[in-house]
Amino acid sequence: MEQQFFNEKAVYVGEVNIKVTSLEQSIPFYKDILGFRMLEQTKDKVVLTADGKTPLVTLEQPEGIQPKQGRTAGLYHFALLLPARADLSSFLTHILQSKYRFGLGAADHYVSEALYLSDPDGNGIEVYHDRPSSGWNWSNGQVDMATVELDAKGLLAETSQKWTGLPRETIMGHIHLHVTDLKSTKAFYVKGLGFDIVTSLPGALFTSTASYHHHIGLNVWNGTGAKIPDKNQVGLNWFTLIFPNNNKRNETVIHLQKQGIKVEKEGEANIIEDPSGNVIRLMIR
Questions:
Q1: d(CA 48, CA 54)
Q2: Using CA atoms, how far apart are residues 56 and 66, in angstroms rounded to an integer?
């Protein structure tokens, strides 16, 4: 894991807040299958961590919550970045030996190797490691990414180390969102928030800061004009973007407001909403 993509020069995703139908059902999955530690728990909320102090995922069970609907905007997946290939190897062995029954996907993206799961409510999750950035191929500001078959046998052979939960160095590597259209989405994330487009694929844009392969993925694979989900539906509640300092965040807030984007203040966060209804909390590192 290379820290320059998640340091004081970058703006990156910090925490993801997810709505679920049942904490009783979700907690065993997030603890026993994914390997999170519990940081905080109330009757309707659980805060999860890898290092024992930094929130990465918060699960909420709102009153009147409804199951996930198909073909809407919202969460495609959030992605947990492991520090090393050996960690992903241990995780894959663990998943294959576990009682996980929600379907397992896998892919080699050139810049990374990834496994894909869904929680009991259908919220998408990626667990991945990055290949060294020195081997990423860039051309005219675009990084070469694709989806090809993962060498699962080679990954499993990487280590015999037993999975004991998420490594303490695990961070939120990126988030990938379903959106209603790419034109307004591009204006919001690139012209508004200042992200760079680093890869374009059919129906999708991948954006980042500090020349990462992507901090935020955006797609219309649920269809252009996909419905914005109801507020009481399973899925993404909000995610945070971490800014290096208050000055950088204030500059961005002023820039957003000049473009007519509403910015609200709640505690330490500035809150905005993208054109597809995805809520973002702007925070300071």
A1: 8
A2: 24
Per-residue pLDDT band at 102 (split at 50, 70, 90)? confident
* Structure tokens belonging to residue 263: 């910015």
> What would the pLDDT profile of 213-272 be if each residue is shown by its tens digit?
999 999 999 999 999 999 999 999 999 999 999 999 999 999 999 999 999 999 999 999
Query: Nearest 5°: phi and psi at 114?
Result: -140, 150
Name 129's bridge partners: 113
Q: In percent, how much of the chain has pLDDT > 90?
A: 97
What are the start-end ranges of the H helices in 127-269?
A: 152-156, 182-186, 246-258
Q: Scan for tokens 């844009």, then name that residue.
A: 205
pLDDT at 99: 84
Distance separating alpha carbons of residues 193 and 253, to the nearest angstrom: 8
Which alpha helices (DSSP H) does 187-274 contain, by range? Answer: 246-258
C-alpha–C-alpha distance, residues 13 and 274, integer Å: 15
Q: Which two three-digit tokens encode residue 99?
A: 């009682």
CATH topology of domain 3-284: 2,3-Dihydroxybiphenyl 1,2-Dioxygenase; domain 1 (3.10.180)
